[in-house]
Design goal:
By secondary structure, the protein is mainly alpha-helical. It has a single domain, classed as Up-down Bundle (Growth Hormone, Chain: A). The protein is about 80% helix and about 0% strand. The chain contains 18 helices and no strands. The longest helix has 29 residues, at about 265-290.
Length: about 400
């Protein structure tokens, strides 16, 4: 009898299984809020530019904490950073419940960015450490598709509540639910996660003062360790990150205000997209592990811009569904390979700091993109952010085609 199924799924018995379970519990209620956050800002009196500004403030606040978090992930350990910051993120959800106006949202957004910045390098590292090169894309695919299944019907339920009771009241209820599920998830992470930091990288009795004192020298060492291919990867990745941040917050506003969808229809589309992702990611990731990353990344990169043109030209529910479904299929094929390619290029002993460098860069670029996207949406036209995104994605795809190469050896 073949042992392949056992070996392929064995990773679920460890940390990835714990992270999948806890992230799924978090997503059970979290999926009620994130598809509609932009509508919450508008409901509390904000504008399209305010949506971008709130996103930008959060992105900028997380820069320094992410650098410190990257160092602490490689010194204090992954587990301690993951569960402690998860608890703080959980309590921050209560501030969203209490927000009296859109300006107040700056406070929980900033705190969320602070805790996330400290946590995310360890969060990414503990998952990366728990994968193997031979099934890394498959592991990331399982990680990407299973947690959202817990919240499969949550966006639709949230949309129904919004259509009946209004956006603001429904979002307050939803954030209260997020606090409950996220607290349970944080407790399980504290109880069940196992440390993955290599013994030779452990530092007994490290303090925050020590972390800050050694921060610059350690990050300089990490930067010098980056390969040329990883630098090229960052350049392309940052281009796509900026492009995505231009329009990311405005899909829901464009769909509801420009095309005329109801909140329940948008929530139903989100549910269908989760099902599509579930069906596509696993076989695509398995193929990426077996046949290489670039065969799946590059075609998706060239097709992504097309889907944005489809979306801005959609004229009703069915056409929006087709455009969003096409985006999701491409995401499901390309993103697991993209994530695995990044890990393939990242030395294990520097992975926490490399994730910190990436996260900080994403924060700076994303904040600029969010503000620019809001200005384009409000100052030029609702279509402008999506069209600029498509153009930038095409440029990034061309650069990737000319420069990306499969690594001769995948990092452990």
């Amino acid at each position: 009898m073949s042992r392949e199924p056992e070996s392929r799924w064995a990773f679920l018995k460890g940390n990835i299984g714990v992270m999948i379970l806890t992230s799924g519990i978090w997503s059970l209620a979290g999926a009620m809020t994130w598809p509609f956050f932009s509508l919450y800002v508008l409901g509390l009196g904000g504008t399209y530019v305010d949506i971008g500004l709130i996103s930008a403030v959060g992105a900028m606040v997380r820069i320094l904490p992410t650098f410190i978090g990257g160092y602490l992930a490689d010194s204090l350990g992954r587990k301690r950073m993951v569960y402690s910051m998860s608890f703080l993120l959980s309590f921050t959800q209560l501030l969203y419940v209490l927000a009296p106006h859109y300006r107040f949202l700056l406070l929980p957004a900033a705190l969320e960015a602070l805790w996330s910045g400290l946590r995310d390098p360890a969060f990414s590292a503990i998952i990366a450490d728990s994968t193997r090169p031979e099934n890394r894309a498959f592991s990331y695919a399982v990680w990407n598709i299973v947690p959202p299944l817990f919240g499969l019907l949550s966006p639709y339920l949230s949309g129904l509540l919004m259509d009946r009771y209004g956006v603001v009241r429904a979002m307050r209820w939803a954030y209260l639910a997020v606090f409950t599920t996220s607290f349970i998830a944080s407790l399980l992470r504290y109880k069940l996660l196992e440390e993955t930091l290599l013994p030779k990288a452990e530092r007994e009795g490290v303090s925050l003062r020590t972390a800050v004192g050694e921060l610059l020298s350690d990050f300089r060492r990490t930067v010098r360790s980056l390969s040329k291919q990883l630098w090229v990867f960052f350049a392309v990745d940052f281009t796509f990150n900026f492009a995505g941040s231009l329009c990311g917050p405005y899909f829901v506003t464009y769909a509801t205000e420009e095309i005329g969808l109801t909140a329940a229809q948008w929530g139903f589309i989100s549910t269908i997209l989760t099902l599509i992702s579930t069906g596509v990611r696993l076989p695509a990731a398995w193929a990426s592990d077996r046949y290489g990353r670039l065969k799946f990344m590059l075609p998706c990169m060239f097709l992504w811009p097309v889907t944005f043109f489809l979306f801005v030209n959609a004229e009703g529910f069915s056409q929006v569904m087709v455009a969003r479904a096409a985006m999701t299929v491409l995401d499901s094929v390309g993103v697991p390979a993209w994530q695995a390619f990044f890990v393939d290029l990242s030395p294990r002993e520097h992975r926490g700091r490399i994730n910190a460098i990436a996260s900080v860069s994403w924060a700076i670029i994303g904040s600029a993109g969010s503000v620019a996207g809001g200005a384009l949406y409000e100052g030029f036209s609702a279509r402008a952010p999506f069209l600029v995104t498509a153009a930038l994605q095409f440029v990034g795809a061309v650069v990737a085609l000319l420069t990306f190469r499969e690594p001769s050896r995948r990092e452990e």
